[in-house]
Specification:
Layout lengths: L7 E5 L4 H12 L3 E6 L2 H13 L4 E5 L5 H14 L5 E4 L14 H29 L2 E6 L3 H4 L5 H21 L4 E6 L7 H5 L6 H6 L9 H12 L21
Parallel strand pairs: 1-2, 1-4, 2-3, 4-5, 5-6
Helix pairs in contact: 1-9, 3-4, 4-6
């Protein structure tokens, strides 16, 4: 039996892509899943699909940069499923902009969604984990923060902050029975990626990679699910790169 059976998991940005694959993986492992996304219709559709399959899932429209949205969504999770055991901070926005064209407004928006959200989402659910003396926090960063990426200074800086956030919070919470880790995806074929201003097609970029294929959302979900299990209980502050060989650390 999976160690995730009966656990309550919140996954942000879970209406599609990596977040959706993660929510589906958790549900199949027996967890009760809360799907948060700014795309309310997509979140509701994802939760409905899981429910039809016999799993337990709910959905909420959440702007992860706004504390009021997060507080309301956490209250809904607790009312339906109880205290939160697992948090996957996955929501984020991509950004492809030449450095000299990055405005302060764009910089602040990217930082708010990709980095500030880590603070407010985690603060909202952490009391549940502290009370249980058990918790799993998994943050989705990016290989762009590890390697650098042209026209993505704002994005890479925000995701570099996620890696630093992970390491620092892991030190603070280790003795409380709560692990904090991060997964930096490589080049993953998601709707958000295909909607981005890529320098070439997904297929052409993937062909130049070591594995000659893009990552799949399910590849990321498998790593995230592992970090949420009892088997990963002695792993914290770790960066688990899932990138098909793009970057080795």
């Amino acid at each position: 039996m999976s160690s995730l059976v009966g656990k309550v998991a919140v996954v942000t940005g879970a209406a599609s892509g990596i977040g959706l694959a993660t929510a589906q993986r958790f549900a199949k492992e027996g967890a009760k899943v809360a799907i948060w996304d700014l795309n309310e219709a997509g979140a509701q559709a994802a939760a409905a699909e899981l429910t039809r399959a016999g799993h337990q899932a709910i959905a909420s429209r959440v702007d992860v940069s706004k504390r009021a949205d997060i507080d309301a969504a956490v209250a809904a999770v607790r009312a339906r499923f109880g205290p939160v055991n697992i948090l996957v901070n996955n929501a984020g926005i991509p950004a492809f902009t030449p450095f000299m064209e990055i405005t302060e407004e764009l910089w602040d928006r990217v930082m708010s969604v990709n980095l500030k959200s880590m603070l407010i989402c985690t603060q909202a659910v952490l009391p549940d984990m502290l009370a249980a003396k058990w918790g799993r926090i998994i943050n989705v960063s990016s290989s762009s923060a590890q390697t650098g990426s042209a026209r993505m200074v704002h994005y890479a800086a925000s995701k570099g902050g996620v890696i630093g956030f992970t390491k620092a919070l892991a030190q603070e919470l280790a003795a409380a029975g709560i692990t904090v880790n991060n997964v930096p995806p490589g080049f993953v074929d998601t709707p958000m990626l295909r909607a981005g201003d890529l320098p070439a097609s997904v297929e052409k970029i993937a062909a130049a990679s070591p594995m000659k294929r893009p990552g799949r959302p399910e590849d990321m979900a498998a790593a995230i699910a592992f970090l949420a299990t009892e088997d990963a209980g002695y792993i914290t502050g770790h960066t688990l790169s899932v990138n098909g060989g793009r970057y080795s650390n």
